[in-house]
Amino acid sequence: MNIWLVDDHHLFRAGFRTLLCRLRDANVTFEASNGQEFIDHLVVAKPDIVFIDIAMPVMDGVKATEEALARFPDLKIIILSMYGEKEYYTRLVDLGISGFLLKSCDFKEVEMAIEAVKNGDYYFSQELLQQMVFQSSASQPDYDLSQRERDILTEICNGESNQEIADRLFISKRTVEKHRANIMMKTGCGNTASLVVFAVKNGFYKIDNNR
Asked: How far lies 81's CA from each of 44, 88, 128, in Å?
């Protein structure tokens, strides 16, 4: 995997790079100290996974992520966040990021995030999901999801693919796809990541703190 690191703190990048290089099949091929350097280098090459900080000079991580995903919607971006930056979370999720990690997390969680994102899934720090829940209002609208749609939403939050959901619920993959489309339409979510955040915020899915 070609991994890029985008963070304005050289010491953090150096330490993070050292840890990443210990992983099998992981190679840090580019580093940038701000979002503009990252965007400029996308013209030259395209990474498998990008780790990007939010607060940076010249161009911050939010703007850089927005520009990068506008050009390459399939780009896999994992946001590195500090506490107190939760006002950006929902916007970034709606843009289509692949994950959120706290900079203070254990490296084991970084490995879990890489594995999930590499396989086309998402990964959100449980602590960050909880912060996003606290942003939501006490009273939530009724989204009128059927029981089957709720079951499928739960499986989506568990990271199951459409085929895995079909096998688990003894229905066809096509049926799962139809239900999934209906859920997206009813909730107004544009991608799987925003759907998971929606489910947590609105009580359709409970965060497992032991995950």
From this structure: 27, 10, 9
Asked whether the beta carbons of 47 and 30 are under 8 A apart, the reply is: yes
Distance CA 3, CA 54 (A): 17
Report whether 183 contacts 149 (CB < 8 A).
yes
Mark 128-137 as b/e (b = at least 16 C-beta within 10 Å): bbebbeeeee
> How confident is the model over 105-130, as pLDDT tens digits?
889 989 989 988 988 888 888 777 77
Indicate the helix (H) or strand (E) that contains 29: strand 27-32
Q: How far is C-alpha 49 from the chain's CA centre?
A: 11
Residue reference for tokens 């607060």: 55
